[in-house]
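User: Okay, second chain of the day. Same drill as before: sequence in, structure tokens out.
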Amino acid sequence: MSLKIWVDADACPVVIKDILFKASERTKVEMTLVANHSMRIPPSRYITFLQVTQGFDVADNEIVQRLAVGDLVITGDIPLAAEVIEKGGHALNPRGEMYTIDNIKQRLAMRDLMDSLRSSGVDTGGPSAMNQTDRQKFANSLDGFLTKHLINR
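Assistant: Same drill. Structure tokens below.
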């Protein structure tokens, strides 16, 4: 069994994709970007792109269907992260936070609360723009994960 990285690519920031491309090449870990619109990827034997049809959660469902136990999914989508964890995978968000069995229920509850507030007209704002600290935290989390899991393969 070999580790594979899946990227929920529709909403993944370009700077994060660039970090992922370099990490995939450096570690020779296969990575598949999944999205419902075409995107450019660098030529690489380790990086592939899978375009899915338009529709609600089509890319998410494809990732969950294809991932194997131990695979890493890059996503900011909390319900997708919950499904990944339930299936035995790992989920890392673009800001470098690893979703875990211990924190995913809290994240889902907070997401649901914010959805309820927004649907009742409350302006909850959005996430802050990605900054250098976020990019560095993501790169460090990814590197730490890959180092730990590649030693064990």
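Residues 25 and 46 are 7 Å apart (CA to CA).

User: Thanks, on to the next one.
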